[in-house]
Design brief:
It contains 14 helices and 24 strands. It is α/β, with parallel strands linked by helices. Bound molecules: uridine-diphosphate-N-acetylglucosamine and phosphoenolpyruvate. Uridine-diphosphate-N-acetylglucosamine binds near residues 124, 127, 128, 129 and 168. Cell wall formation. Adds enolpyruvyl to UDP-N-acetylglucosamine.
Length: about 425
């Protein structure tokens, strides 16, 4: 099993290119199921979740290939979908497989998707996805661990849906279902994450009629069919990869230019980084971050976009761990997203957790040790801590990291980090 070996203590310096957003790529790959025309996606990141999604689409009969000629481009042809089924062996490795449910039901009137179980960071039910589809007329049964869904007479009906909480993939699933439904759907309490808006823009380019993009109320007039987006669709930059590098630079005391990114998707994180002492300059598609000595500890509370993202909580905690002072971090989205804390303690961090709150008392230095990644962003936070720690840090179980980061260790190495993959080859990224 692959591990990352890090010899800490080197500030990051140089330039790095940010990849396309995992959490936009996954629903947008599924959106290709909504049309019989071939769809071209650009800026698709090379990471394990994308590989898993391409595999899932292929098992259904979709032609899904990376272009040899154009790096980052994926061509998808869902003309023939023989089996509208997402089996357990793929869903268990990637919860976002649930994103095929809405589009399959919308276009083919039937779908069977294995019910995702719990996950390291929380129980993560999909009841809101199911409730919304039922409101659109779907008949849904859960049998033998599978969600079995059908649309009577083959087509969903528009409905007014208010989800009990803001759900990102829930909004995306219902949006993809609604674009081909008969009549109008109104999604209240919709997620406003940039990845949801990027999906909506792709759907509009495919002929969907959607009002309110970027707001908490999406109004959709269903159409009979969709076409491919003319000229393809380019995936937005990954704001969480961006934030991860920003935190790594501040924690290590470096100076880095991040290219091909979008600063306006990261307002809350950038505000907190500045509060922590980072000097940050912004351009249309770049961010330059410079650390001015040891960071100051800064508290924050995770919440839905545009507030501080839960997917940045662990990485920002790694900054606080070596900062001057103390900070309170509150996690409001997932009930078990402090799994990195016990591993950080092994590196010498001082953190106390009480329910949804972690109190971090910054320390002057960390000392390298073997630590175990428990989930995707926990892995990233341990890499940041390892880059700061004195001596060697070995991060185990980095298959979690590979799910969601595009060649992270190569990018870090290009910035001067002493980091290498040991114990095998990287798994087949898409
Ligand atoms: C592939 C993808 O885009 N993943 C992101 C997505 O996950 P995901 O879409 O799974 O997260 P949600 O926004 O749905 O979850 C938010 C909260 O709602 C709860 N909930 C959600 C749906 C539901 O039917 N019932 C229910 O109770 C969840 O357990 C959680 O407590 O948004 C999360 C919150 O920003 C991010 O951390 C993930 O990186
Ligand atoms: C939690 C995440 O992803 P997923 O929803 O795919 O588990 C994440 O990207 O941090």
């Amino acid at each position: 099993m692959d591990k990352l070996l890090i010899r800490g203590g080197r500030p990051l310096q140089g330039e790095v290119r940010i990849s396309g957003a995992k959490n936009a790529a996954l629903p947008e790959l599924c959106a290709a199921l909504l049309t019989a025309e071939p769809v071209r996606l650009a800026n698709v990141p090379s990471l394990q979740d994308v590989a898993t999604m391409l595999k899932l689409l292929r098992t259904m009969g979709v032609q899904a290939e990376r272009s040899d000629a154009q790096p980052g481009e994926v061509l998808l042809d869902a003309r023939d979908v023989a089996t509208p089924v997402a089996p357990y062996d793929l869903v268990k490795t990637m919860r976002a497989s649930i994103l095929v449910l809405g589009p399959l039901l919308a276009r083919f009137g039937t779908a069977t998707v294995s019910l995702p179980g719990g996950c390291a960071i929380g129980s993560r039910p999909v009841d809101q996805h199911i409730k919304g589809l039922q409101a659109m007329g779907a008949q849904i049964a859960v049998e033998h661990g599978n969600i079995i869904a059908t649309a009577p007479a083959g087509r969903l009906k528009g409905a007014r849906i208010a989800t009990d909480m803001v759900t990102v993939t829930g909004t995306e699933n219902l949006l993809m279902a609604a674009v081909l439904a008969d009549g109008e759907t109104v999604l209240e309490n919709a997620a406003q994450e940039p990845e949801v808006s990027d999906l909506a823009q792709m759907l509009v380019a495919m002929g969907a009629k959607i009002e309110g993009v970027g707001t908490s109320r999406l109004r959709i007039q269903g159409v009979e069919r969709l076409h491919a987006p003319a000229g393809g669709h380019r995936i937005i930059p990954d704001r969480i990869e961006t934030g991860t590098f920003l935190c790594a630079v501040l924690a290590t005391g470096g100076d880095v230019l991040l290219k091909d990114t979008c600063a306006s998707h990261l307002d809350a994180v950038i505000d907190k980084l500045r509060e922590a002492g980072a000097s940050i300059d912004l351009g249309d598609d770049w961010i330059r971050v410079r650390a001015g000595g040891r960071p100051r500890a800064v508290g924050f509370r995770t919440s839905e976009y545009p507030a501080f993202p839960t997917d940045m909580q662990a990485q920002f905690m790694a900054v606080n761990v070596v900062a001057e002072g103390a900070a309170v971090i509150t996690e409001t989205i997932f009930e078990n997203r402090f799994m990195h804390v016990n591993e950080m303690l092994r590196l010498g961090a001082r953190i106390e957790v009480d329910g949804h709150t972690a109190v971090v008392q910054g320390v002057e230095s960390l000392s390298g040790a073997t630590v175990m990644a428990t989930d995707l962003r926990a892995s990233a936070s341990l890499v940041i801590a390892g880059l700061v720690a004195q001596g060697e840090t070995l991060v185990d179980r980095i298959y979690h990291l590979d799910r969601g980061y595009d060649r992270m260790e190569l990018k870090l190495r290009s910035l001067g980090a002493d980091i290498e993959r040991v114990g095998g080859q990287r798994g087949a990224a898409a």
